[in-house]
Amino acid sequence: MSDIHNRKTVITRKEHRCEGCFEIIPKGSKAVHCKGKWNGRFYDYHLCEPCRKYMDDYMEENEFMPGEIKDLRMEAGA
Fold first, then answer.
1. What is the DSSP letter of 14?
2. What is the rounded CA–CA span in Å between residue 53 and residue 39?
3. pLDDT for 66-75, tens place per residue?
4. What is the rounded average pLDDT of the residues 23-39?
5. DSSP letter for each residue of 26-72
6. Residue 75 and residue 72: Cα distance in Å, rounded?
7. Any idea which of 2-6, 26-30, 32-36, 51-55 has the lowest mean pLDDT?
8. Beta-carbon-side half-sphere exposure of residue 45 (alpha carbons within 13 Å)
9. What is the pLDDT of residues 35-64, one digit of tens each?
10. At what angle do helices 49-58 and 68-76 cross, to 10 degrees?
11. Dihedral through CA 55, CA 43, CA 40, CA 8, nearest 10?
12. pLDDT at 16
């Protein structure tokens, strides 16, 4: 669990890479910006809407390895 966590829905002002699936989130898209501190290490990343929805619907702990959500979404057909 995060020591500090901030999660905010944003409209991107530039392209970002989704940390959940490694796909590009285009400029002007809705995304979730997450940042905080976990186990003494700072993190700062964006999630695309499909990855955010998958995490909210199916992942209980909201912890994942970079790129892992794409494979989980494909297995679930989400």
1. S
2. 25
3. 888 888 888 8
4. 94
5. -TT-EEEEEEEEETTEEEEEEEEHHHHHHHHHH-SS----TTHHHHH
6. 5
7. 2-6
8. 19
9. 999 888 899 999 999 999 988 887 766 678
10. 70
11. -60
12. 97
Tokens in use for 62? 């909201």
68 closest CA partner among 49, 56, 55, 53: 55
> Residue 45 carries which side chain, given as an amino acid letter?
Y
Residues in contact with 57: Cβ distance below 8 Å, sequence separation at least 6, in sequence order:
78
Q: Which residue has the tokens 């989400």?
A: 78
Instruction: State the Cα–Cα distance between residues 66 and 78, nearest whole angstrom.
Output: 18
| CATH, range 4-76 | 3.30.1740
Give the pair of three-digit tokens for residue 44.
Answer: 């700062």
